[in-house]
């Protein structure tokens, strides 16, 4: 069996796309059907967004370690990540439905909000992790623009109900931070962590 450079415990095609920029060989380490991966993303009462995103990332790392052990996979570092959007200290997660997506986008309209992405690399010995914090400015959005964007289906499954790499790019006036971090995997921090555990690329 060929041992990958790393395992990636994320279903996000955006994270996989970003990781391929490094030329790192990887295999996906995804939850089985009987694993309730979404339950790891439950927000604790009064939990600050910075604490939340890092805690969830590390919980995903622990779950991935157990998954690799159950499957008796050859050892390799495991990458996990989590992204959240917050406005005035309130976490804006993945929308439940179209109505929730419309409500989230209406809240983000004309605001500056934060996008937080935590990333972790776990080895047999320990876990190394980092946090990327970016600010995003949305221009004011008309209701018909919100309706069209929600109808495209793009907001679903995305923290804050939008993806910077898609149709929502026209809503964004300015960013301060990491574009790749806003997409879901901060490349600067990820590269540093990979080097820390000895992964060459």
From TrEMBL:
Q: One GO biological process from the UniProt record?
A: nucleotide metabolic process
Output the superkingdom of the source species.
Bacteria
What GO annotations for molecular function exist for this entry? dTTP diphosphatase activity; UTP diphosphatase activity
Which residues are the active-site ones?
82
Q: What is its EC number?
A: 3.6.1.9
Which SUPFAM superfamilies does the record match to this protein?
ITPase-like
Q: Name one Pfam family in it.
A: Maf
Q: Which InterPro entries match?
A: ITPase-like_fam, Maf-like
Spell out the subcellular localization from the entry. Answer: Cytoplasm
Per the entry, which co-factors are needed?
Answer: a divalent metal cation
| Keywords, sorted A to Z | Cytoplasm, Hydrolase, Nucleotide metabolism
Name the job this protein performs: Nucleoside triphosphate pyrophosphatase that hydrolyzes dTTP and UTP. May have a dual role in cell division arrest and in preventing the incorporation of modified nucleotides into cellular nucleic acids.
Q: Which NCBIfam families does the annotation name?
A: maf
Q: Which family does it belong to?
A: Belongs to the Maf family. YhdE subfamily.
Q: What is this protein called?
A: dTTP/UTP pyrophosphatase
Q: What is the lineage of its organism?
A: Bacteria, Pseudomonadati, Pseudomonadota, Betaproteobacteria, Burkholderiales
């Amino acid at each position: 069996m060929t041992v990958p450079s790393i395992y990636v415990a994320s279903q996000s095609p955006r994270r996989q796309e970003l990781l391929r920029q490094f030329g790192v060989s990887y295999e996906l380490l995804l939850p089985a059907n009987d694993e309730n991966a979404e339950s790891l993303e439950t927000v604790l009462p009064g939990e600050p967004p910075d604490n939340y995103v890092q805690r969830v990332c590390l919980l995903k790392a622990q779950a991935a370690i157990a998954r690799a052990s159950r499957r008796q996979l050859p050892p390799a570092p495991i990458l996990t990540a989590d992204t959240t959007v917050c406005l005035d200290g309130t976490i804006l997660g993945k929308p439940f439905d179209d109505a929730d997506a419309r409500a989230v986008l209406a809240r983000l309209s004309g605001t500056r909000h934060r996008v937080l992405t935590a990333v972790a690399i776990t080895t047999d010995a320990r876990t190394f992790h980092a946090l990327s914090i970016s600010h995003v400015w949305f221009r004011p959005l008309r209701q018909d623009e919100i309706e069209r964007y929600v109808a495209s289906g793009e907001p679903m499954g995305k923290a804050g109900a939008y993806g910077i790499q898609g149709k929502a790019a026209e809503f964004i006036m300015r960013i301060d931070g990491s574009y790749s971090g806003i997409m879901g995997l901060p490349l600067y921090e990820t590269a540093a962590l990979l080097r820390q555990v000895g992964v060459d690329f």
